[in-house]
Amino acid sequence: MGESIVIMGGGVIGLSCAFELQSRGSKVTVLEPNNCGGQASGAAAGMLAPYSENVEGPDDFFRLCLDSLRLYPKWQETIKQVSGQTFEYTNSGSLYTAFHQADLLALEGRLLWQRQFGSSGSILSGDELLRLEPLLSKNVQAALYTPEESHVYAPHYVSALEQACRVIGVNIQENLERVEIVQWQQEVLVRSADHRLFSGDKLLVCSGAWAGELASTFGLYIPVHPIRGQICAYECEPAVHPVNHMVFSSQGYLVAKENGTLVCGASEDIAGFDTSVTAKGIERLQRWNKGVFPFLNELVPFHRWAGLRPSTQDGLPLIGPVGGSNESLGSNRSNRSSQSSRVMLAVGHYRNGILLSPVTAKLAADWVYGNSSISPTSGISTTSSSTRSSIRSSTPSSTRSIEAFSPERFGRGLRV
């Protein structure tokens, strides 16, 4: 039996890390204040779309997302097999729409660099575009078609992931109300609201939008805060209103699910930890989506919901170890942290938690087992120490820097 790992947070990131670690031989305990997947994970639209959602260029975050997309076929297959549950995983491809000439020029520039990273995309217009998506507005001049992108039905995916964890022996403790770290340097000790103590060799923090509350515990600036994302869904009979791809615009996205719903998102605002749905937020979605699919003028959303997305100061997640002392770390802080720390953070995934779940699980497990992919300049290796491990891929991963996601990149100490 490997090391015992305590994971704070039972969302998609915490559960994915738990599955991978337990698969490799660790003894894992997941501590969740509420229900597993009850926050941002279960509220997500489930898009696996790194090309469409990273429009600026092939930075480290795009490469991380691309690594995770390439891991997904085997990952989702394994989760289904182990859990005995099924969930939607659809290789629909995507269309990113352009309404003006300036938008089209931007898409052409994006396509140039994306083709260097495995995209077989193309710019479509006129009859060629309408053959793929017949109900698109005639005001759409063109669209960037990316066949490689996919989506999952997030609630069922998270449910299957939780069940897979239980099947392989992960100890999941839910509805704990509150968990607090008692000790993390000499040993790991976490206490729940009912005064139970949970101990382990290492601690993995996957507490999403609530991670910033641990700044004083670690003496580390953790600029993670919640962004409320509001989403709505329409009942759309595929035979009447077929939508064949994920469709993006500069205003948001539309994703058709196998259950006959068309999901539209997302209206974002800063509202603290308030997950209530507002008329203003949903109306914003209704205003722009009719310009993409005119048939939505005739329909009213049957479901509206909101989730809290864990955003960070620079828009990048915090993935990596936290140093074993409060002293300032130098340029080699990642190597020193990974050697001395009992704690790793995997938080701040914002709107990409579903997409990044398999790659984050791999990084967390590699940190525990001392593999090299947590070091500053490596790509993700594609081997695993367990035949049960599900995130092996035959596609070479893109080289990118893990240092970009170091939790200590914002410095130590608290800020007002």
TrEMBL record:
The organism's lineage is: Bacteria, Bacillati, Bacillota, Bacilli, Bacillales
Keywords linked to the UniProt accession: Oxidoreductase, Thiamine biosynthesis
UniProt-listed Pfam families? DAO
Biological pathway: Cofactor biosynthesis; thiamine diphosphate biosynthesis
The source's superkingdom equals Bacteria
Q: Where is this region: Disordered?
A: 316-337, 376-403
Supply the name of the protein: glycine oxidase
UniProt xrefs under InterPro entries = FAD-dep_OxRdtase (IPR006076), FAD/NAD-bd_sf (IPR036188), Gly_oxidase_ThiO (IPR012727)
